[in-house]
């Protein structure tokens, strides 16, 4: 389903609302890293035409111009910062962000690992928060945007790292208009057991919220996914919770669970994926070459709203 369209009138409605929220906001000056194929370059230029970013094209000049010719795009209006190769492009984009020449970074035609290696390796772009990724998912059958974290950066996060992951997601959801996000800390079961570490982490995170170590959201966990999305499933198991069946943010135990859940939603629930890396001095958009236009624009909208309403 993720490859095409179903004609579902609900599909894309959350993203269209996000884009509408961007009206009147100044676009983000964005380093687009290694946009050397027609698809990644086109995505950046579409975002520029939508008023979401002002692209600064960073990469080998001859390859960027060849991609522009192939896509019939005029890149003359945009700044082009020439580098030798993709490694250098990633490093240059981080340098531009550290120097406040740009306000955001967007992945072009290079591997996520290559870009994030440059980001993680530069202390000047770090903040006191752990970096984490949030998918903002538009699932046609879910009544609100679904925030999923972390399915892209942190592999097996510790409790302290999960605290930052949760706080990053809460702050983003609030910037995107969710006044008090409901946060489901996911596991395989709803009860705390020493046999499943993620249930202990979930309980600890909820107590951290009680003590003010996490702010701005309402947390509950451990919750299985069905209890997080379905009031009926929660009621059948006797779960009384302000989050169960109404969750905005879904915190997964590790990157494997998050990656699988995201792709299941995309390919089996006809969901669209937008996302951003948080916790650095600038938002970082990890768009995929498989993303359709609305999802690419929505990643830019998420970054723009997060930055301007911070």
Which features would summarize this protein structure in a list?
alpha/beta; 2 domains; Isopropylmalate Dehydrogenase; Rossmann fold; 41% helix; single chain; 310 residues; disordered N terminus; globular; five-stranded parallel β-sheet
Task: Give the structure's gist in a few sentences.
The chain is built from eleven helices and eleven strands. The protein has 310 residues and is an alpha/beta fold. A six-stranded mixed β-sheet has the order 8-7-9-6-5-10, sandwiched between helices. The chain has a five-stranded parallel β-sheet with strand order 3-2-1-4-11, sandwiched between helices.
Classify the helix fraction into a percent range.
40-55%
Structural class call reads: alpha/beta
Cα distance, first to last residue?
35 Å
Q: Mind telling me the C-alpha Rg?
A: 19 Å
Mean pLDDT figure: 94
Number of strands: 11
* The level-1 CATH class of the largest domain: Alpha Beta
> What's the arrangement of strands in the largest beta sheet?
8-7-9-6-5-10
- What number of domains? 2
